[in-house]
Design brief:
Elements: H1 6-9, E1 21-26, H2 36-44, E2 57-62, H3 70-83, E3 87-92, H4 102-111, H5 116-119, E4 129-137, E5 140-147, H6 148-151, E6 155-161, H7 176-181, H8 186-200, H9 202-216, E7 219-227, E8 233-240, H10 244-258, E9 266-272, H11 286-289, E10 304-310, E11 329-331, H12 332-337, H13 340-350, E12 361-362, H14 365-375, E13 386-389, E14 397-401, H15 402-408, E15 414-425, E16 428-432
Parallel strand pairs: 2-3, 2-6, 6-7, 9-10, 9-13, 10-11, 11-12
Antiparallel strand pairs: 1-14, 1-15, 4-5, 7-8, 13-14, 15-16
Helix pairs in contact: 2-3, 8-9, 8-13
Length: 433
């Protein structure tokens, strides 16, 4: 597809006066776990490992998110299981991610530092599944699929972060239960889950499938990880299989209280340097940008962001730019990074089609801002509320326009570091003091 280049657009769009910016540090109070790997070992000891025979195989499910020290946690888990006389294997538990192919899912894990060489266990990335049950969720009969490789093991353990989801709110959101219901269902299971969840609700679908999986598989439980504002580990807890649905809601409350968010809710323009699946299932955390864009869940009231400009994709996402449809403007560089097979595999499986739409494409940053600023309506550089972030997880430092810098100076958790000027080099945005 050919997109208009600078010569096609520059005469249609007048240059816009730019506000001055400030680089700010945001540092709300939070707790960080001092010895996470020791905690992993201690917590895994709370699971019923003594019920397993020596030499038993343990399938360890790991997902596609960039969780703090996830490779170290995976390696420590494998080492502990080895020392107990078991044979651990790693199973990608990420539904359709990686283009719904074994190679793509291995590639995602490797990008997170999880490989056979790094963690000391084989990675079984087959997409094969078996139907282990069928459950009724409301008026919908739903097949329950589970990884064939995991079913061949003597025990199953999942490791995942507990956090607010990007499509819905409820007592259970992202975590070990969802990894069981969706991630280990591979593409076929993820598609069946999402089809039912869109009709009957996400939480009842997760609960029904988790219960069925617990009854049909040798499930040990989950290792639940909670990150703090700095995206560092604040809590690690092993949850036995029988307690997953009762314990996760309490951990979700903690995760919600400590999650990374912006210190301002009313924003005219949010500029996001990069999006990716390891950052969020929606590419950009919808709890930060205030947009779900799914058919059965209204967008949250806060934050309120008029326009979003997404500049590119992370390397780790390997072309899966699902979530770019949450932006209002993007640029050619982001389009060139897209692997549409991976985007479509993700979007068609989840049924969340809006996230795969392409917004208007600008050739470069300078013209993207020429598009965005007048589209705000009544644009005034002296009052425009602009926030410029690297991504929706790294929110300890970012840039704001001058009017927001002045407003944030009274916030005890925010420090204004230095004023900066936005300029362009061959159309690409740069900041200088």
């Amino acid at each position: 597809m050919e997109f208009p280049d600078r010569r096609d657009l520059q005469d249609l769009l007048d240059p816009q006066p730019l506000p001055s910016f400030a680089r700010v540090r945001y540092d709300p109070a939070t707790e960080t776990l001092d010895a996470p790997l020791e905690t992993v070992r201690d917590e895994l000891g709370r699971l019923p490992l003594d019920e397993l025979e020596p030499g038993a195989t343990v399938a360890v499910g790991l997902g596609s998110r960039g969780i703090h020290r996830i490779a170290d946690i995976a390696a420590e888990t494998v080492t502990m299981l080895d020392e107990r006389g078991f044979e651990p294997i790693i199973i990608p538990a990420m539904g359709s991610h990686g283009g719904a192919t074994p190679e793509g899912q291995r590639e995602i894990l490797a990008a997170l530092g999880i490989s056979e060489e790094r963690v000391g266990a084989p990675v079984e990335a087959t997409m094969a599944v078996e139907q282990v049950d069928e459950v009724a969720v409301g008026d919908t009969a739903t097949p329950v699929y589970f990884s064939a490789a995991a079913l061949e093991a003597d025990a199953v353990l999942v490791i995942n972060r507990i956090k607010p989801h990007t499509n819905f709110t409820g007592r259970i959101e992202s975590g070990c239960c969802k990894m069981l219901a969706v991630g280990l269902g591979k593409q076929r299971g993820a598609q069946a889950f999402h089809s039912t969840a869109l009709a009957e609700g996400y939480v009842p679908t997760i609960e029904a499938l988790t219960a069925a999986i617990r009854n049909a598989t040798p499930l040990l439980g989950g290792l639940a990880l909670v990150e703090n504002f700095r995206e560092e580990l604040g809590h690690i807890e092993a949850i036995p299989a029988s307690e997953l649905e009762t314990r996760e809601p309490e951990l979700l409350e903690r995760a919600t209280a400590e999650m990374a968010t912006l210190p301002v809710d009313d924003i005219d323009l949010l500029v996001v340097d990069e999006l990716g699946k390891e950052i969020s299932g929606a590419g950009m955390d919808t709890n930060v940008i205030g947009r779900y864009r799914v058919i059965n869940a209204p967008d949250p009231d806060e934050p309120s962001i008029d326009l979003i400009y997404a500049r590119g994709l992370t390397e780790e996402t390997k072309g899966n730019g699902n979530g770019i449809g949450l932006a209002d403007i993007t640029r050619r560089r982001a389009i060139e990074q897209l692997d549409l097979q991976k985007v479509y595999a993700n979007a068609l499986t989840s049924g969340s089609l809006a996230k795969a739409k392409l917004p208007p494409v600008a050739p470069d940053d300078e013209l993207a801002l020429r598009i965005a600023l007048p589209a705000l309506g009544g644009y005034d550089p002296a009052t425009a509320r602009i926030v410029w972030i690297e991504n929706t997880t790294d929110l300890a430092e970012f840039r704001v326009s001058e009017t927001l810098a002045a407003a944030l100076e009274s916030d005890d958790n925010v420090t204004v570091l230095e004023r900066e000027r936005l300029r362009f080099e061959d159309g690409t945005a740069t900041f200088e003091a």
